[in-house]
Amino acid sequence: MTTNEFSSSVFTPEALNKNKFASARSGEKRKWVGHLRNTLRAAAFLLLSATAVCPPAHAATWKGYTYINTTQQPAWKAIDELSHKIEEISGGKITIKNSLGGSLPIRVNEITQAVGDGILQFADDMSYVGNIPMSGVIRLPFLINSEKEYNIARKIWVRYMSQELAAHGVVLLAEYHYPPQVFFATKPLKDLQGVKGLKIRVSSAEQGEFIKKIGGVPITLSVPEVAPALQTGVVDGVLTASIGGGTIWKDVLKSRFGLGVNWTNSIFIVNKGTWDALPSDTQSKILHAARSVAGNVETEMMANEKAATEKLHAEGMTLSEPTPEQTASSTSVMRDYWQAWAKSKGPTAEKALSEILAALKK
User: Fold this and answer.
1) What is the largest CA-CA distance in the chain?
2) Helix or strand holding residue 240 (H, E)
3) What are the backbone angles phi and psi of residue 3, rounded to the nearest 5°?
């Protein structure tokens, strides 16, 4: 269309009348759009008001994490069970998304700090020792020689540990222990004398001290390195439990000497800011649930340890148990080390050790 054609078509009387009617219709449309916009604004305001008064069922999502890297372990089942209990206690206001160890860019020895920093809200933490120096007191070799003694020491340890964790922005919900660490070897081993000269894989410096004191050679290896080391003779044995390495490496292990060197434990923890935001009655219920779950997983693992040991024996592994004298002599050998260890960890560790020793009458 040319300019003249455009001009003549627009400014004719007919065109002007059309534009007038179009303008009227446009005005009515603007009024209708404005009315719709106001209606939508009112609806949005009412919706926001309703959600402010009645929060959605899943108002908070907690990111959970564990050192366990498989769903087949009792410890995974425990954190999963506790998560569901917390969700139920909160009336659906909390949802917990748990991740297996290694699935997040957080190493297991960083879990404590990650919870304190709020990167995680909830976790099962087994590698807390590097963050809390005094915490390793409950794992000292031969400080605790029975489950009865463990239960006595635990009460003291939990009190100190709760205070130490609080300083890191973490709340301790509950603690549970694994079966004691005992000897497994690729050759016959039935008493302490047999450890002399053997190369034993250890999982802590404290275990290594005991091995050295009884004439053995402590070796530190990562879990993937253990099997080939046992097969090639780089190590002659390991300190572990039947439900752990005893079963994993059973094809190369020939004997089990059931001298309990030390106990290992793990803790359910929550970020302190997240915890403080909960109502007190919710906190009480969660604490009760956590302690119940911790007690149950402990019982399950101790029963599993007995069954696994019996199975290993049935499959041909030689079993030997320590005499009371062997346990007593091992305890005596480590007594001075406990004090030196505590002194190196600071006043809090010294106080905790002193209280535990007094409670155990040692």
Assistant:
1) 120
2) strand 237-240
3) -65, -40
| pLDDT tens-digit map of 35-62 | 444 443 334 333 333 333 344 444 799 9
Q: Which CATH class is domain 56-131+168-177+267-316?
A: alpha beta
**Do 101 and 108 form a contact (C-beta atoms < 8 A)?**
yes
Structure tokens at 271: 């970020």
Residue 144, φ and ψ in degrees, nearest 5: -120, 125
Domain(s) of CATH 3.40.190.10: residues in the chain: 182-261
Q: How far is CA 3 from CA 12, 14, 16, 343, in A?
A: 14, 18, 17, 99
As annotated, the residues of the chain forming the CATH 3.40.190.170 domain(s) are: 56-131+168-177+267-316
Per residue in 74-127, pLDDT (tens digit) is 999 999 999 999 999 999 999 999 999 999 999 999 999 999 999 999 999 999
Which CATH number is associated with domain 182-261? Answer: 3.40.190.10
Cβ 35 vs Cβ 69: under 8 Å: no
214: helix, coil or strand? coil
One-character DSSP codes across 84-143: HHHHHHTTTSEEEEEE-TTSSS--GGGHHHHHHTTS-SEEEES--TTT-GGGGGGGSTTT
pTM of the predicted protein model? 0.82
